């Protein structure tokens, strides 16, 4: 049976005080060095433990998925046939947006004194649809909803209508940077900022409320990095302001309150938002990306298949399970989650989990390892090279 991510493992030390050996090593110009993490590209670091370690774990290699993809493709070139887009995402976008606006109208204009019911529906239905729309933003950021960047940007803008705040284009911008610089300090906007780690610490109450702002922190972290709004982000702000005015006229203030509750509750303690923690928070040593294989994938567009997605960003949501089926030897050995509720509960209540439960890498180490540590052509080549001379394998 493949391993399942749990909260039972106890670790007493991490690499947080290490200096980047990989970034300082100067390989011989005539030598070929292979990445010692081949073929699964799991790291050597130990996960960070709150109150034991000062901050996230530190890795001296580049992010793993670029090399994992090359390795998997050599064994399973048929995966490239899955590349493309899924037009059904557009229909999901229009339907989910219509339902949310309709419910805003119902509670804003018709059931104006159904306060408890509105809150319940905002959590169960509105929260689920809100997180679904967030996942649509994820799909269109990779141009997986249809042909061309312009179409995908506008699908994102449509999905943004009931989210009230302008996040579509900022998410696209910073999410693509996350893929390029996964775990790289000061470059990956998915990493919590130092003030987040310092403020939340390992306090269960603070962790609970921190989850409520996690979905929009891509924008906040980007601004904190001193990034100026792009042209499309400015368009997104104007578009959202225009739509908010129309929504106010259509559903009224109470309807806007329903939509706002849907966003706050949906991106908070909600199973549809648990993937934010599931994806890269370190439940085990050496593994920085985790998938979720459970029933939630049927509604939330297979967002749980996160290792598969990071390995193959050109594969749309509907075909991600096929990636795992075609290359089981690369996924069945990885830890994974089976319950999003379990992820949320573990993160909030466990003393082993906090915002610092990530792995980070210095930019110089990332670039050095990416440039100098090659992907072997085959397992035979790797074995032959390392048995002939251990120095042909990096020693990080």
Notes on the structure:
By secondary structure, the protein is mainly α. The strands form 3 sheets. The protein has a two-stranded parallel ribbon with strand order 1-6. Helices cover 52% and strands 3% of the residues. Mean pLDDT is 90; it is low at 6-25. The protein folds into 2 domains: 1-75 and 274-396, no CATH class; 83-270, no CATH class. The chain is globular, with a radius of gyration of 22 Å.
Topology:
Blueprint (H helix, E strand, L loop, with lengths): L20 H4 L8 E2 L22 E2 L6 H11 L12 H23 L4 H27 L7 H12 L7 H13 L13 H7 L3 H11 L2 H8 L6 H36 L8 H6 L10 E2 L3 H4 L6 H6 L8 H7 L9 E2 L2 H10 L9 E2 L2 H10 E2 L4 H10 L8
Parallel strand pairs: 1-6, 2-5, 3-4
Organism: Spiromyces aspiralis
Protein name: Sphingolipid delta-4 desaturase
Rg (C-alpha, Å):
22 Å
Runs in which pLDDT lies below 50 for 5 or more consecutive residues are: 6-25
Number of helices: 17
Overall shape: it is globular
Number of domains: 2
Biggest sheet details:
2 strands, parallel
Strand numbers in spatial order across the main sheet: 1-6
Overall pLDDT level: 90
Helix content: 40-55%
Strand/helix succession: HEEHHHHHHHHHHEHHHEHEHEH
User: Beta-strand percentage?
Assistant: under 5%
**Class from helix and strand fractions:** mainly alpha
Number of strands: 6
Gap between N and C termini:
30 Å
Organism: Spiromyces aspiralis
Protein name: Sphingolipid delta-4 desaturase
């Amino acid at each position: 049976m493949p391993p399942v991510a749990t909260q039972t493992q106890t670790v007493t030390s991490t690499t947080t005080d290490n200096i980047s050996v990989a970034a300082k090593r100067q390989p011989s110009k005539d030598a070929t060095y292979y990445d010692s993490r081949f073929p699964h590209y799991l790291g050597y670091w130990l996960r960070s433990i709150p109150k034991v370690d000062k901050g996230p774990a530190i890795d001296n290699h580049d992010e793993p998925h670029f090399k994992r993809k090359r390795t998997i493709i050599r064994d399973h070139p048929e995966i490239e046939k899955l590349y493309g887009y899924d037009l059904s995402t557009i229909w999901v976008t229009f339907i989910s947006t219509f339902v949310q606006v309709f419910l805003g109208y119902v509670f804003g204009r018709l059931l104006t004194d159904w306060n408890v019911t509105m809150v319940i529906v905002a959590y169960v239905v509105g929260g689920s649809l809100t997180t679904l729309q967030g996942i649509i933003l994820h799909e269109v950021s990779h141009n997986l909803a249809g042909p061309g960047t312009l179409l995908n940007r506008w699908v994102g803008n449509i999905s943004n209508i009931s989210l009230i705040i302008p996040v579509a284009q900022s998410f696209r911008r910073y999410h693509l940077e996350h893929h390029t610089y996964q775990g790289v300090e000061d470059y990956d906007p998915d990493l919590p900022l130092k003030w987040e780690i310092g403020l939340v610490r390992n306090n269960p109450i603070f962790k609970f409320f921190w989850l409520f702002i996690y979905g929009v922190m891509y924008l906040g972290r980007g601004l904190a990095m001193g990034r100026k709004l792009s042209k499309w982000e400015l368009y997104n702000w104007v578009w959202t302001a225009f739509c908010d005015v129309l929504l106010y006229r259509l559903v009224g203030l109470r309807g806007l309150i329903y939509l706002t509750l849907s966003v706050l509750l949906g991106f908070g303690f909600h199973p549809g938002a648990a993937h934010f923690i599931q994806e890269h928070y370190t439940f085990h040593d050496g593994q920085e990306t985790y998938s979720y294989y459970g029933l939630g994938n049927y509604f939330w567009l297979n967002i749980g298949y996160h290792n598969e997605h990071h390995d193959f960003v050109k594969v749309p949501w509907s075909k991600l399970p096929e990636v795992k089926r075609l290359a089981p030897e690369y996924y069945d050995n990885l830890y994974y989650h089976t319950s999003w509720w379990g992820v949320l509960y573990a993160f909030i209540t466990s003393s082993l989990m906090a915002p610092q439960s990530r792995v980070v890498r210095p930019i110089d180490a990332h670039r050095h390892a990416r440039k100098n540590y090659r992907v072997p052509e085959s397992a035979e080549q790797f074995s032959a090279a390392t048995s002939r001379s251990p120095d042909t394998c990096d020693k990080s």
